[in-house]
Design brief:
Elements lengths: L1 E6 L2 E6 H6 L2 E7 L2 E8 L6 E5 L6 H4 L1 H4 L2 H10 L1 E5 L20 H15 L4 E6 L1 H12 L4 E7 L8 H17 L3 H11 L2 H4 L8 H10 L4 H12 L14 E7 L5 H10 L5 E6 L6 H4 L2 H12 L29 H4 L6 E3 L4
Parallel strand pairs: 5-6, 5-7, 7-8, 8-9, 9-10, 10-11
Antiparallel strand pairs: 1-2, 3-4, 4-6
Helix pairs in contact: 5-6, 7-11
C-alpha cells in the first residue's frame, strides 16, 4: 500500500507496510533463486524463523500474532524474528519466469538452510502454518542439528489425499487460466479461516478476512502456482516424525480442513517431546484468527528453554536460549503445563 503526499507540486511515495512494521527486508541469493527475508529485532538474540501457508506472507499469515501485544513482547524479548517468504510471495514481488525450474518441497527446505548460513545462524526455533509447517518439519528432519523447536499451526505431514489433490488441481487450473480470480480467493479463504469469520449473507466477513482478501490481490499467480505445485507433489514424511528430537508444539483449529491431518501428525510424534492445542471455533490460520489462544501454550513451551515473559517494569536482557540451558526434566509436555490430549480453547463471543 503506497500513499502519495503532495506538497508544492512534489509527490513522495511512501510504503506504509514497511514503515509500519519496522522490519528490514533482505534478498538472500540461493541455488533456487532469491528469497525475501524480513528481520525484526536484535540479531544478537536467538533466531525464530517463520514460514507462511500458500499465497500468504508475513503480513497476511503472522501479523495477527506478532501485533498481539503480549505475544509480540514475549517473542521480540526472546528472539530475533526472521520471516522467510516462499519464492515470489513477498510484497511487491515480480512474476517468476515460467522457464525457471519449479522448486520441490526439498528445494524449499534446502533454501532455508542457505538462508541460515547466509546470516551465520546456528540452531533456530521454527514457526510454520500449514504448507509452511510442512516445509519446516521437512527441514527439521533433514537438518536436525539446526532446529531447537517446532511450533506448527494446522500442519501437514502426509502426501495429499485424493480430495486435497483434486482441490489443489482445481486451484492450479484457476491460477493458470484466470490468475488471482475471485473464485480462487474464495477457495483460499476457505482454506485459511472458519465460517465464523468468513461471514454469511446476513453477517459481513471480519476485518481479518477483508485484509487477507486485499493482500491476496497483490500475489502474482505464477508464483503462487509454483508453490502450490510443490505442495501438491509433497511426499509423506510420517515415518520421519518419530526421529525428531526437538520439542514440538502443534496448534490446530477445530474447523480447519487439515484438522485430521494435525491429529494424525501428533499421534506419530514422540509423546515425550510433543503436545497438541486444539482451538475451538477456528480455521487453519490460528495466528490470524485467534492469536490469543497461542499465548499461554507458547509461554509454557518457551519456559522449557529457559525463556520467560518480560516484566513491563524492567529492561529486556538477552534471552538465555541455548541447548545447555534446557533441563532434561523440561523436555516433557507435562513440564510445559500441557496435556497430551487436545487442549480446548474457546473464543469469547
Amino acid at each position: 500500500m503506497a500513499v502519495a503526499m503532495d506538497d508544492s507540486n512534489e509527490s513522495v511515495s511512501v510504503n506504509m507496510e514497511k514503515i509500519y512494521l519496522g522490519g528490514k527486508e533482505h534478498h538472500v541469493p540461493t541455488g533456487r533463486g532469491s528469497v525475501s527475508v524480513i528481520i525484526y529485532g536484535d540479531q544478537d538474540k536467538p533466531a525464530l524463523i517463520t514460514y507462511p501457508d500458500l499465497a500468504l506472507n508475513h503480513m497476511s499469515c503472522f501479523q495477527g500474532l506478532f501485533f498481539w501485544p503480549e505475544a509480540a513482547s514475549m517473542l521480540l524479548h526472546n528472539f530475533c524474528i526472521y520471516h522467510i517468504c516462499p519464492p515470489g510471495h513477498e510484497l511487491g514481488a515480480a512474476p517468476i519466469c515460467p522457464d525457471d525450474p519449479a522448486p520441490s518441497v526439498n528445494d524449499l527446505a534446502d533454501q532455508i538452510l542457505e538462508v541460515l548460513n547466509y546470516f551465520g545462524i546456528g540452531a533456530v526455533m521454527c514457526m510454520g502454518v500449514t504448507a509452511g509447517a510442512y516445509i519446516l518439519t521437512l527441514f527439521a528432519m533433514k537438518y536436525r542439528e539446526r532446529v531447537l523447536g517446532l511450533i506448527l499451526v494446522s500442519p501437514l505431514c502426509k502426501a495429499p489425499s485424493w480430495s486435497e489433490w483434486f482441490y489443489n488441481k482445481v486451484m492450479s487450473n484457476l491460477l493458470y487460466f484466470y490468475g488471482m480470480s475471485g473464485l480462487l480467493k474464495e477457495f483460499l479463504l476457505q482454506r485459511y479461516f472458519s465460517k465464523e469469520v468468513r461471514g454469511t449473507a446476513e453477517v459481513p466477513e471480519s476485518d481479518i478476512v477483508q485484509a487477507c482478501r486485499r493482500l491476496l490481490d497483490e500475489r502474482q499467480s505464477i508464483n503462487v502456482l509454483r508453490f502450490l505445485q510443490a505442495i501438491n507433489r509433497r511426499p509423506d514424511i510420517t515415518d520421519g516424525l518419530k526421529r525428531l528430537r526437538c520439542r514440538t508444539l502443534v496448534f490446530v483449529g477445530e474447523n480447519s480442513p487439515f484438522h485430521s491431518e494435525a491429529l494424525h501428525m501428533i499421534s506419530k510424534l514422540d509423546k515425550r517431546y510433543s503436545a497438541l492445542v486444539e482451538v475451538q471455533a477456528c480455521g487453519s490460520v490460528v495466528t490470524e484468527e485467534q492469536p490469543h489462544a497461542m499465548l499461554i501454550p507458547m509461554e509454557y513451551f518457551f519456559m522449557g528453554y529457559g525463556l520467560y515473559k518480560p516484566c513491563p517494569f524492567s529492561d529486556s536482557p538477552r534471552s538465555p536460549l541455548s541447548p545447555s540451558c534446557i533441563s532434561p526434566e523440561l523436555l516433557s509436555p507435562e513440564s510445559m503445563g500441557l496435556k497430551l490430549k487436545p487442549i480446548k480453547t474457546r473464543m469469547s463471543l
